[in-house]
Structure formats: C-alpha cells, structure tokens
UniProtKB/TrEMBL annotation:
Coiled-coil regions, chain positions: 97-124
Pfam families linked to this entry: LOB (PF03195)
Record's protein name: Lateral organ boundaries, LOB
Annotated ranges, domain LOB: 17-118
C-alpha cells in the first residue's frame, strides 16, 4: 500500500502546467503540442502578442510547415514583430529599424564632425611650430621628396625627410639620357 502511494505522489508532483498558448486558448496542452517548446507558461504575453497580430491558426500552420531546427528562430521573429506591432501599430518593427538607422546616421555625422575637428586642430598646430612662410626657402625640384599620401597637402613640408638625404645618381638633370 505504501508503495502505491509513493507512485501517486510522484505522478502528481511531475504535473506540468500547460504552455502559454494552450492556457490562453483554454485547451488541454497535449505532449506533442506545437506551441509548448516556444511559448513557456512563464511568458504568457509572448503568445498573447503573437496571437493578437498573427492568429493562432496561422502560427500553427507556419510552425508545421517549417523544419524543427528553424521553428525557434521563426517564433522569435514573430514575437519580435508582434511586440513591435503592439507598441507601434502603424510601422511595427520597421519603425524601430528606421529609428535606429536615423540614429546611426546622426552618430556618423557626429563622428565625421569630431574627426574634422581633430584634423583641423592637428593642422593648426603644425604651422605654428614652423617658421613663417616668407622665411622658408622653396624646395627645388631636385630636393622635393616623393609624395606622401598621408601628408596634408595644405601643410608645407619644410625639409626633406631623413631617408631622403641625397638624390639618386641615375636621375638625369636635363631630362634626356646620355646614350
């Protein structure tokens, strides 16, 4: 007799509450319920929103047509879209995406302005450390260093770099060759 009582206790303690979908739809949650893995009883609002926007029968059809490994992603997408539609009935998640895109554009503009300020401040510091332009001697074509793509074209380069000590011997000053 004691043995039978323990068995009954075990079965009653392993009782599972129905999933959020079955609870909302007021039906019995069977072991093979298509909603149970994706709408746990702890998250009833998730199913309420999905049902309000898409309908239970449409969600059932969608989940039955999908392979099992894609269902969780589909339910998460449906829940996200449904929550966005509840918050913003006109635009839904497109409104959220547009808001985020505008925010990214605004932040990119701020970043561009900050970078421009940095460049302007850096360029304004360079000429003040150099002698006045009238005191600088012009660089002759033979002394001109190779073009540095990182150098700001508006900033004069008053001296050849240390790696450019003497001109190459194979350059001909007259422009022609002596063959």
């Amino acid at each position: 007799m004691q043995r039978k009582h323990k068995y009954q206790m075990a079965s009653s303690s392993s009782y599972n509450s129905p999933c959020a979908a079955c609870k909302f739809l007021r039906r019995k949650c069977v072991p093979g319920c298509i909603f149970a893995p994706y709408f746990p009883p702890e998250e009833p609002q998730k199913f309420v929103n999905v049902h309000k926007i898409f309908g239970a029968s449409n969600v059932t059809k969608l989940l039955n047509e999908l392979p099992a490994h894609q269902r969780e992603d589909a339910v998460n997408s449906l829940a996200y879209e449904a929550e966005a539609r509840v918050k913003d009935p006109v635009y839904g998640c497109v409104g959220a995406i547009s808001f985020l895109q505008r925010q990214v554009q605004r932040l990119q503009k701020e970043l561009h302005a900050a970078n421009a300020d940095l460049i302007r401040y850096a360029c304004n510091d360079i000429p003040t450390a150099l002698p006045a332009p009238s005191a600088m001697t012009p660089i002759t074509p033979r002394q001109r260093p190779p073009v540095n793509i990182y150098q700001n074209p508006g900033v004069p380069f008053p001296y050849p770099p240390s790696w450019y000590d003497k001109p190459s011997e194979d350059l001909d000053e007259g422009g022609g060759s002596n063959i």
